[in-house]
């Protein structure tokens, strides 16, 4: 069985999973089997191939621990009323000619605090889309602003699994990466705000649905205590408290608010943390439900399996040709350009943001002498470009959740503003002491 045959079968399996809606985990497991057989035929025994796979898989373990806490935090922030608090007061801040801008800023703040794009889109995003439809605002423009805001935190939040995965793959410190994310993200965000301010003026909302505000008031006790979990998550990283401890303390704060402010029993709170939040009734029941440790099982398994597959592919040598080609692109066009090319190709082929990060590291790491630079390049390319590919699950699932078509993608301004601005300004925003290769 040749390398080409293995890749063709593997990619066909990825395509089948995409079309049928099956988890990509099945395709990755098939890939492990196929390339395991190929490695065996090349003379590698099972123990040697496991060491190859584990060399990458072990990097993912820290990310898996974060996945567990993220699952708990996405459920308990719902039960504590934290997400409702943000949405309720965010919606009240809307004026007719600022709706699109507020949609971007609100989802951006929540995504930075929560660290999960899907969690933001499934709550605040759906509420904002309901307001857009009832208020006569363009659905495509609104959805684009929501996508931009939701993936703002995916790139630079301390609680982001994507940011943690990049740090693990590049073996860099998360807080250093986050500092670089903010430094290279200021100008793109400012330009994006300006664009959404103009779009807000061109697409004003006719009226805000007061019934929705009433439903928000009835869904939880809206008090300042609901801000405590978010304050813990937002402030502790600023004083360099370790990420896992910050998230754990935010989970604890949300648990206390759920019990002592929202009136949940201790058992209900523990069940919510594990199984997800399930409000008894209410107009927003479907929107506010979700989260829980159990909800992160599939994403965690997918990321870990991706790491194993990447280690195996590298170990048995099937990536050498692609790595050599990528290195030539980096030499001729610059490392960030190579990162963009690899990210777009991987996002289009593998249709998963986590796979883009892991495979991108495998193909690009030899081109970098500065691992921190590699982490910034990956964050400003692979993480942020995946949601621009219509069939990538980072884009297709949010579009389905929001009930819009791919017409929303051109209005996801931040997603292409970041790589464009960073690519044009990298020599000033990320200077390197020693340039081993042409930029």
Task: Note down, in words, how this protein is organized.
By secondary structure, the chain is an all-alpha fold. Among the domains are: 1-43; 61-296, no CATH class. It contains 22 helices and no strands. It has helices at residues 3-20, 24-41, 46-57, 61-79, 82-92, 99-114, 117-135, 139-156, 161-170, 174-202, 210-219, 228-235, 243-260, 266-275, 285-288, 297-316, 320-333, 335-350, 353-364, 371-385, 393-402, 413-429. The protein starts with a helix and ends in a 10-residue tail after the last helix. Helix 5 (82-92) runs parallel beside helix 7 and helix 7 (117-135) runs antiparallel to helix 8.
In short:
The protein is built from 22 helices and no strands.
End-to-end CA span: 39 Å
Tell me the number of helical segments per DSSP (H or I, 4 or more residues long).
Answer: 22
**Order of helix and strand elements from N to C terminus:** HHHHHHHHHHHHHHHHHHHHHH
Oligomer state equals: single chain
The class by helix and strand makeup works out as mainly alpha
**What portion of the residues fall into strands of 2 or more residues?**
under 5%
Outline the low-pLDDT stretches.
433-439
Mean pLDDT: 87
Number of β-strand runs: 0
Radius of gyration: 22 Å
Overall shape: it is: globular
Helix percentage range: over 70%
Main β-sheet description = none
């Amino acid at each position: 069985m040749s390398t080409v045959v293995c890749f063709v079968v593997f990619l066909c399996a990825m395509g089948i999973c995409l079309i049928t809606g099956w988890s990509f985990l099945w395709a990755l497991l098939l890939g492990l089997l196929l390339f395991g057989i190929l490695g065996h035929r090349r003379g590698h025994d099972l123990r040697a191939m496991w060491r190859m796979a584990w060399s990458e898989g072990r990097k993912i373990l820290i990310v898996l621990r974060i996945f567990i806490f993220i699952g708990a935090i996405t459920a308990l922030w719902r039960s504590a009323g934290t997400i409702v608090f943000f949405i309720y007061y965010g919606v009240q801040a809307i004026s007719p000619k600022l709706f699109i801008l507020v949609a971007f800023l609100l989802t951006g703040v929540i995504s930075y605090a929560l660290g999960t794009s899907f969690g933001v889109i499934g709550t605040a995003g759906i509420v904002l889309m309901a307001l857009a439809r009832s208020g006569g605002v363009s659905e495509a423009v609104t959805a684009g602003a929501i996508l931009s805001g939701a993936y703002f935190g995916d790139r630079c939040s301390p609680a982001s699994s994507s940011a943690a995965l990049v740090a693990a793959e590049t073996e860099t410190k998360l807080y250093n990466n986050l500092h670089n994310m903010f430094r290279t993200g200021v100008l793109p965000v400012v330009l994006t705000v300006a664009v959404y301010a103009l779009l807000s003026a061109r697409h004003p909302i006719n009226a805000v649905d007061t019934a929705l505000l009433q439903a928000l008031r009835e869904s939880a006790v809206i008090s300042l205590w609901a801000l405590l979990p978010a304050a813990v998550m937002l402030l502790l990283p600023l004083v360099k408290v370790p990420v896992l401890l910050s998230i754990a303390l935010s989970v604890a704060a949300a648990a206390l608010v759920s019990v002592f402010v929202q009136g949940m029993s201790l058992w209900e709170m523990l069940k919510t943390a594990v199984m997800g939040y399930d409000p008894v009734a209410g107009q927003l029941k479907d929107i506010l439900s979700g989260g829980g440790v159990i909800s992160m099982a599939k994403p965690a398994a997918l990321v870990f399996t991706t790491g194993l597959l990447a280690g195996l592919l590298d170990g048995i040598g099937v990536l050498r040709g692609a790595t050599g080609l990528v290195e030539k692109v980096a030499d001729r066009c610059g490392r960030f350009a190579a990162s963009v090319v690899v990210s777009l190709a991987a996002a289009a082929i593998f249709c998963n943001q986590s796979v883009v990060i892991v495979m991108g590291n495998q193909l690009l790491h030899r081109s970098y002498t500065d691992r921190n630079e590699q982490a910034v390049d990956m964050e400003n390319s692979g993480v942020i470009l995946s949601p621009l590919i219509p069939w990538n699950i980072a884009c297709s699932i949010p579009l389905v959740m929001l009930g819009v078509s791919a017409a929303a993608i051109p209005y996801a301004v931040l997603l292409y503003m970041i790589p464009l601005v960073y690519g044009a300004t990298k020599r000033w925003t990320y200077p390197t002491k020693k340039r081993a290769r042409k930029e």
